[in-house]
Amino acid sequence: MSAFSGAASAADTPATPPVIVPSLPPLDAKAYVLMDYRTGQILAAKDRDKELAPASTTKLMTAYIVFQDIKRGHISLDTKFHVSKKAWHEGGSRMFLKVGSDVSVDNLLKGMLVPSGNDAAMTLAEGVAGSEQAFVARMNQQARQLGLHDTHYTDPNGLPKPGLHSSALDLAKLSRAIIRQFPDDYERFFALKSFTWNHIHQNNYNKLLWRDPSVDGLKPGYVSAVGYNLAASAERHGMRLIGVVMGADKPKASSAANYINLAKVTGSLLDYGFHNYAVHKVYDAGQSVIKAKVAHGEKDKVALGLRHSLYATVPRGQYSELKAHVELPGSITAPIKKGQPIGHLVVKLGSRVIARKPLVALNDDARYSFW
Questions:
Q1: Residues 198 and 328 in one domain
Q2: Which keywords are on file for this protein (predicted)?
Q3: Mean of the per-residue pLDDT values for the chain?
Q4: Which is deepest, 2, 85, 101, 188, by most CB within 10 Å?
Q5: Residue 21 falls within a domain, yes or no?
Q6: 3: in domain
Q7: Are 211 and 126 in a shared domain?
Q8: Rounded average pLDDT over 317-343
Q9: Residue 8 pLDDT > 50
Q10: How far apart are CA 67 and CA 354, in angstroms?
């Protein structure tokens, strides 16, 4: 990465050559997003904000809320929820729960995430919040907190109803939040290839789990209005990507053939990212990025750095093309406290901003006194 000194001005910035990004082969889908997990950067996208029916990928939010309650100690994997007649009566894909039975959260999560049981999702919703309505309200509140601006839920399982919608970008954000906030739960549930309940053996609809050993989760879904959706994540050589495809559909093919096609399309998206991009650490947490002048301080300058290590995802072979500059206030006056935000670090690749992070003081600088 190019070094810098001081704050950059537009007049002093030399023209940069265009960044060469390998083109993504055409994907037969209504929308898609490829996101780097560590940095959150979008590496490829088509209609990423388009509101579409999420189908059973809705269950990602249901899982998120259940994981959240487990982490907070409100419930555990051994907690048992009662299967209501309403939950038992849910249509579509099912875990095949028995009405009136009591089932552990552990098994309900497996039944929801592997065979995509709508009955399991409803049982979890009623058990956590007391009613479907209360749980859906919490789903929408959580969506707002996570910045899922194109998402609105109407049920815990994704059965089509007016007002239910999400986007490829929102599904990528939600997937990233699940992996980041609940890594143990992610590892425990999302890579399961099959699940048996009441002597009924069912396979995971995420066929990428069989096709690609680097894929370790998330969730597919289908609704006739959109087609086949899949949020998937894979890790290779320390780099994790999240690929979301919405609306992959071969109308004349069988459901089984469509799920295989969905895996191929999403797999192509992930392969593109791994083959053409790499993640680099740009700065360590606490590393001095620049020493800024301080007025009226005991020291003339204060070292500025980042609270957290900064990574950037760039096309392979183009790390040296990264440019960085700082944005500082017109004046910095003592006293300065360690950790105090002062300005920003901006990292660009060509004309595109890769990252903009707040700089903080790495040490104190007391106000100079004559006495």
A1: no
A2: Carboxypeptidase, Cell shape, Cell wall biogenesis/degradation, Hydrolase, Peptidoglycan synthesis, Protease, Signal
A3: 93
A4: 188
A5: no
A6: no
A7: yes
A8: 93
A9: no
A10: 31
Where is the binding site, in residues?
219
Of 180, 187, 189, 219, the closest CA to residue 36 belongs to 180
Q: Listing from the earlier edge strand, what are the strands of the sheet with 341-349? A: 290-293, 301-305, 352-361, 341-349, 322-327
The CATH number of the domain where 256 resides is what?
Answer: 3.40.710.10
CATH number, domain of 295, equals: 2.60.410.10
Tokens read off for 8: 């950059």
- Read off the pTM: 0.91
184/78 same-domain check: yes
Number of alpha carbons in the 13 Å side-chain half-sphere of residue 289: 32
225 DSSP assignment:
T
Q: Specify the number of domains making up the chain.
A: 2
pLDDT band at 369 (very low <50, low <70, confident <90, very high): low
Give residue 250's pLDDT band: very low, low, confident or very high (50, 70, 90): confident
- Tell me, yes or no, whether 80 and 214 share the same domain: yes
Residue 224 known to be catalytic: no
Pick out the residues of the known binding site for substrate.
219
Catalytic residue among 30, 46, 93, 116: 116
pLDDT tens digits, one per residue of 49-100? 999 999 999 999 999 999 999 999 999 999 999 999 999 999 999 999 999 9
Q: Would residue 22 count as lying in a domain? A: no
Specify whether 124 is located in the same domain as 201: yes
305 shares its domain with 352: yes
Selecting among 30, 59, 173, 323, the annotated active-site residue is 59
Taking 50 as the threshold, does the pLDDT of residue 7 lie above it? Answer: no
Predicted confidence band at 102 (pLDDT cuts at 50, 70, 90)? very high
Residue numbers of the domain that contains 324: 10-16+280-361
**Catalytic one of 56, 93, 166, 233:** 56
DSSP 333: B
